[in-house]
Amino acid sequence: MRELVDEVRAWLAWAEESGLQNLAPPGRQAQQVETVKLPLLEAVRTELGECTRCKLHKTRTNIVFGVGNPEARLMFVGEAPGEDEDLQGYPFVGKAGQLLTKMIEAMGLRREDVYICNTVKCRPPNNRNPEPEELLACEPFLKGQLGAVKPEAIVTLGKFAAQALLREQTPITRLRGQWREYQGIPVMPTFHPAYLLRSPAEKSKVWEDLKQVMKRLRLPIPKGGAS
Question: Which CATH architecture has domain 2-216?
Answer without folding.
Answer: 3-Layer(aba) Sandwich (3.40)
